[in-house]
Design goal:
Chain A: Belongs to the ABC transporter superfamily. Chain A: It is found in: Cell inner membrane. The complex is a heterodimer of chains A (249) and B (224). Helix content of chain A is 39%, strand content 24%. With 249 residues, chain A is α/β, with parallel strands linked by helices. Chain A folds into two domains: 168 residues, 3-Layer(aba) Sandwich (Rossmann fold); 69 residues, no CATH class. In chain A, a hairpin with a 2-residue loop joins strand 4 and strand 5. The longest helix of chain A has 16 residues. With 224 residues, chain B is mainly alpha-helical. Chain B has one domain: MetI-like (MetI-like fold, Orthogonal Bundle), CATH 1.10.3720. In chain B, helix 1 crosses helix 4, helix 1 runs antiparallel to helix 7 and helix 1 runs parallel beside helix 8. Chain B is flat. The chains are: A alpha/beta (249), B mainly alpha (224). Chains A and B meet through helix 2, helix 3 and helix 5 of A and helix 5 and helix 6 of B.
Chain lengths: 249, 224
């Protein structure tokens, strides 16, 4: 661990309706690093992401982004520095793709229309949607929607991007295009924290894998070690289970 | 002979209709602005604001239009003299506020919560998300139910004659008393005038709805 991680999560706890979903989670994310969080469903992975940008504020513990503690005060300026990609895309239904990517740049960052348009076009080109600027979300395929939402996050020039199961709502034949965009981003040095079971992404682009279960981090390590010789029996059990699923699919 | 008189009196009917349309526009505008405010308060507000919204809606939806008109003109008019027109705008406009708030609240609640969350995750404020994400979608979905409100309020403007607003119905009753009868003919013309304005307004609103339909979404136009 370096002295200056871009994101530092310390002992984060969160209880929902009497159930402790996160039971003290701590980890660091270095600049340019991409980590993938895996684990059975209901383990608190998505909750962990939402605790980081306070979409769902933690009950205790703290989150430090680039040396600044994330708290309710000034949260909008902090959120603008943390990209968030949702499982369900959550594009703005009534806005064309270009405006989806421009809106927060103008509204939050106060960029001029020209500047916002320029950045939007750059990021839409990066995700391969230059020909869809004028399309409405309902006119896009699932994969295109998710790529547009990635462009929307990227155009804010975030310090890191959180991905919450970005391919889980997609048909299997559409996951590839989204995974490819994410791999390219990781290779280009974007800092990423990804909740996903995409082993393709994990193997090819993740610097580290975090295995979570029951609200705690069971173990973490580089994919090469964690996938081949995990320390904990639960980890190998889980890995066997998802590799079976993938073979069946 | 009655037709000659009708032709001669028609400008008065038109003048009455114009007053009625002005009343309609003013009360709908008041109800629109306050109705959206009330709807946003009742969906996103502190519990005290939500309570205020509920009480306001209950009161203004629970009192007959005529009683509200009399209450505002003669009741409040005693403390603060109001012209009949202003009293009618307030009485009918506040009542319309209650009904429009119901329409907007329903359509606000139908906007996907995930989009608001995405806006907040991008750093937009709560109000910014409501303004840029929720309202543009909610207002589109409100047009259909709003046509009802337009029709109901157009007809309600005729009640303003009880406090002396010289709108279409009032003009008609003047003419009837001048003509000594011919009630059927005069009110048939008046009925046709209300009908035409009602149809034109509704046609305009449906055209607006079609124009604002988001491509790729099932709208009224997509059925054909």
């Amino acid at each position: 661990m370096s002295d200056n991680p871009i994101l530092s999560v310390r002992d984060v706890r969160k209880t929902y309706g009497g159930v402790e979903v996160l039971k003290g989670v701590s980890f660091d994310l270095e600049r340019g690093q991409s980590k993938i969080v895996i684990g059975p469903s209901g383990t608190g992975k998505s909750t962990l992401l939402r605790c980081i940008n306070l979409l769902s504020p933690p009950d205790s513990g703290n989150v430090v982004l680039d040396g600044v503690t994330v708290e309710e005060r000034g949260i909008n300026q902090i959120r603008a520095q943390i990209g968030f990609v949702f499982q369900e895309f959550n594009l703005f239904t009534h806005l064309r793709v270009l405006d989806n990517v421009r809106l927060a740049q103008r509204n939050v960052l106060g960029r001029s229309k020209q500047e916002a348009t320029r950045r939007a076009m750059e990021e839409l080109e990066r995700v391969g949607l230059s020909d869809k600027l004028e399309a409405y979300p309902a006119e896009l395929s699932g994969g295109q929607k998710q790529r547009a939402s990635i462009a929307r996050a990227l155009a804010m020039d975030p310090k890191l991007i959180l991905f919450d199961e970005p391919t889980s709502a997609l048909d299997p034949e559409l996951t590839g295009e989204v995974v490819q965009v994410m791999k390219d981003l990781a290779n280009a040095g974007m800092t990423m924290l990804v909740v996903s079971h995409e082993m393709g992404f994990a193997r090819a682009a993740a610097d580290e894998v975090i295995f979570m279960e029951g609200g705690v981090i069971v173990e973490q390590g580089p994919p090469s070690t964690l996938f081949t010789c995990p320390e904990h029996a639960r980890t190998s059990q889980f890995l066997r289970m998802i590799s079976h699923e993938h073979q069946e699919a | 002979m009655v037709f000659d008189t009708l032709v001669a009196e028609f400008p008065f009917l038109l003048r009455g209709l114009w007053i009625g349309i002005q009343l309609l526009a003013a009360l709908l505008a008041l109800g629109f602005v306050l109705g959206i405010t009330l709807a946003v308060m009742s969906v996103y507000g502190h519990w005290s604001l939500r309570l205020f919204a509920v009480v306001f809606e209950r009161i203004f939806r629970g009192i007959p239009e005529i009683v509200l008109l009399l209450l505002f003109f003669y009741g409040i008019g005693e403390l603060l003299p109001l012209s009949p027109f202003v009293a009618a705008v307030l009485a009918l406009g506040l009542r319309s506020t209650a009904y429009q708030a119901q329409i907007f609240r329903g359509s606000i609640q139908s906007v996907a919560g995930g989009e608001v969350m995405a806006a907040r995750a991008l750093g937009m404020s709560r109000l910014g998300a409501i303004w840029h994400i929720v309202l543009p979608q909610a207002l589109r979905r409100s047009i259909g139910p709003w046509t009802n409100e337009y029709s109901a309020e157009l007809k309600a403007t005729s009640l303003a004659y009880v406090i002396g607003v010289v709108e279409l119905t009032r003009q008609a009753s003047y003419i009837v008393s001048n003509l000594q009868g011919n009630t059927l003919t005069v009110f048939a013309v008046v009925a046709a005038m209300y009908f035409v304005v009602n149809r034109l307004g509704n046609a305009g609103l449906y055209a607006l709805e079609r124009r604002l339909t988001i491509p790729g979404f099932e709208g009224r136009g997509a059925e054909s």
